[in-house]
Design a protein that fits this description.
Layout lengths: L1 E8 L5 H16 L4 E8 L6 E8 L2 H9 L4 H8 L6 E6 L6 H8 L7
Amino acid sequence: MIHSTIRIAINPEQSDEAVTILHMMADRTRAISGCIACRTYRDAFEGDILMFEAIWESEEDMNRQLRSDEFRNVLLAMEMAVEMPEIRFATVSHVSGMETIEKARNTGWLVE
């Protein structure tokens, strides 16, 4: 599994346009074979920071999207950045959930 994140600092005057582009791309990306999830976020503390996150079943699936004509829309949003976007691709070999918190706290679902 591959987890990709793109963090973009946007000029406030272009924020609405960038959000529209990234939301549209998240909707389209979720429909692509091999995409597990795709979301956009606005930072709660820094409103001019946008995040585009996608989780892929494989590197091949992700690369197919990165090469696509559709991905140019994400690149367009990145060009609106007021500083160099932060881009990360992480290979995930293990995923867990609530059981990790329960194990760390040595509790069941209810917090003591």
